[in-house]
Write a structure and sequence with these properties.
Rossmann fold, 4-stranded parallel beta sheet, about 10% strand, 2 domains, 12 strands
C-alpha cells in the first residue's frame, strides 16, 4: 500500500535483501520511487488510479474493503502480465495489499506478508472492541457493511475473470500468509499468545529517510514536546489551535508538524514557545523530545518508544485506537479520543507524562523489547528459510 506508514517499514527489509544479492522489484506510487531505489529496490509504478494517489483515503475509510478489492482487480489487469514475464521466487505483500495474494496464486509462488501495524486476528479485534474501539456511528457501520457487500460481489467477479480463488474478505482486510513479518515486539503486540510460529515479530524497522528535512535546531531551547498527526490524518486546523491553547504558556517548547495541507495562516498567531513546520525530521526530533503528542500511527509510536519517549495518543481511526490503548495499558503513555481533546485536557495529559518518570521508564522497557526482537537479520533469515522450504516441498510434490 503506497502510504508512508506501510512503505517506510519495508525499506530496511529491501536493503537487507538487496545486500544479500536478492533482486527486489517493488510496486508503489511515484512519491516513493527514490526511497525504494535508494534502499536497493527496483521501482515499478502502479497504474491503478486509486493507488497512484490515495491522499483522500481518510475520507473514504468506510469504503476500504471495496477499494482494496477494486485495486486488486486493477493490479491483476494492469500489472500481472508484466509480473508474469519476470522470474520470481517469492511475493512479499503488504497486509492491506491483497492483490499480492492473487499474484502469488496466479504465479504459483510463496507469499510473505509484511505487517507494518499490529498483527490482527479475531482476538485482537475483540481486544479493541472491549476497550471501546468501535465505528463512530451507526451510519458509518452501515456504510462499512454496504461496501463490504460490494467487495464480496466484486471478489466473485474477479475469481471468475482471473480463474483464481483469491483471499477471502477477512484476509483482504487483515492479510496474513504462511510467513508474516511483523514490525513490532512480542511485548508490544496485544494478544500475543494467539499467534503461532507463522508470525515473526522482528521489532520496528527504521531506515534513513530519502532526503534530509531542514529544521531550525538553533531555535530549540532546552526541553520540548513534539506534536504530529502523521502524514494522512493531519488536516484538522482545530486540533492545532487546541495545541496553541494548551501549551502557549508552558515552561517548555513545542515542535509541531502540520503537514502540507493546513496553511499556517489559518491557525492564528503562533505562540512564542512554538516551532511550527510542515514537516520535521521525525527520528531526529524524537531523539531529543521529552514527550510526543501523536495520532497513534504504528510507525510514529514505534519510533517514539524506540527512543523511550512517552506519548499522548489521539487516534484518528480504529487501528490507531488499538495502538493507543496498548501504549496506555503498558504504562508508556495516555490516550485521548478526538472528542475529548481540548486545550486543558491536552495540557493535563502532557504535564502528567512529564511529571511522572514512570511513563519514560515503561517506554524504555518497550524499547528494550524492540532491540531484542532480531530486526532485519531475523526477517531476512526467516524469508530465505521459508522460500527454501517451499521449494523443497514443491519439488517433492513433482517427484
Amino acid at each position: 500500500m503506497p502510504l508512508h506508514g506501510h512503505v517506510n517499514p519495508s525499506l530496511p527489509l529491501v536493503r537487507a535483501l538487496a545486500d544479500r544479492g536478492i533482486d527486489v522489484i517493488y510496486y508503489a506510487a511515484d512519491p516513493f520511487a527514490s526511497a525504494i531505489e535508494e534502499a536497493g529496490g527496483r521501482f515499478r509504478r502502479y497504474r491503478s488510479e486509486f493507488l497512484r494517489d490515495i491522499r483522500n483515503l481518510p475520507d473514504r475509510m468506510h469504503e476500504v474493503a471495496w477499494l482494496l478489492m477494486r485495486s486488486a482487480g486493477e493490479v491483476l489487469e494492469h500489472e500481472l502480465p508484466e509480473i508474469r514475464a519476470g522470474s520470481f521466487d517469492v511475493v512479499i505483500t503488504d497486509s492491506v495489499a491483497p492483490w499480492g495474494h492473487w499474484v502469488g496464486e496466479k504465479l504459483d509462488l510463496p507469499v510473505v506478508t509484511s505487517v507494518p501495524t499490529f498483527a490482527f486476528n479475531r482476538h485482537v479485534l475483540a481486544y479493541g472492541v472491549a476497550r471501546g474501539v468501535r465505528p463512530k456511528s451507526a451510519g458509518v457501520l452501515l456504510s462499512k457493511l454496504r461496501y463490504i457487500t460490494k467487495a464480496a460481489l466484486l471478489r466473485r467477479r474477479l475469481r471468475r475473470r482471473f480463474d483464481a480463488r483469491g483471499p477471502g474478505l477477512m484476509k483482504t482486510l487483515m492479510g496474513h500468509s504462511d510467513l508474516n513479518i511483523v514490525y513490532t515486539s512480542r511485548l508490544f503486540q496485544p494478544c500475543i499468545e494467539t499467534f503461532d510460529e507463522r508470525y515473526e515479530f522482528v521489532g520496528p524497522s527504521f531506515g534513513p529517510r530519502s532526503a534530509a528535512t531542514p529544521f531550525p535546531w538553533e531555535h530549540v531551547r532546552g526541553d520540548f514536546v513534539y506534536v504530529s498527526l502523521g502524514t494522512l490524518f493531519n488536516t484538522d486546523p482545530a486540533f492545532y489551535r487546541h495545541c496553541f491553547d494548551a501549551f502557549r504558556d508552558a515552561p517548555f517548547q513545542v515542535v509541531m508538524s502540520i503537514g502540507g495541507t493546513v496553511a499556517l495562516s489559518a491557525l492564528g498567531p503562533v505562540p512564542a514557545n512554538f516551532i511550527v513546520q510542515p514537516y520535521v525530521p521525525q527520528l531526529e526530533v524524537l531523539a531529543r523530545a521529552s514527550a510526543f503528542v501523536s495520532h497513534g500511527g504504528m510507525n510514529s509510536v514505534s519510533e517514539s518508544l524506540a527512543h523511550a519517549v512517552p506519548l499522548v495518543v489521539i487516534p484518528q481511526m480504529g487501528e490507531q485506537a488499538i495502538v493507543g490503548r496498548r501504549v496506555q495499558e503498558l504504562g508508556a503513555g495516555r490516550m485521548l479520543t478526538p472528542p475529548e481533546v481540548s486545550g486543558s485536557r491536552l495540557r493535563a495529559a502532557v504535564d502528567g507524562l512529564l511529571s511522572d518518570p514512570g511513563f519514560r521508564t515503561q517506554a524504555a522497557v518497550i524499547r528494550k523489547s524492540f532491540r531484542a526482537a532480531g530486526g532485519m537479520d531475523r526477517a531476512t533469515e526467516a524469508i530465505t528459510t521459508f522460500v527454501h522450504r517451499w521449494r523443497s516441498k514443491e519439488a517433492s510434490h513433482h517427484t
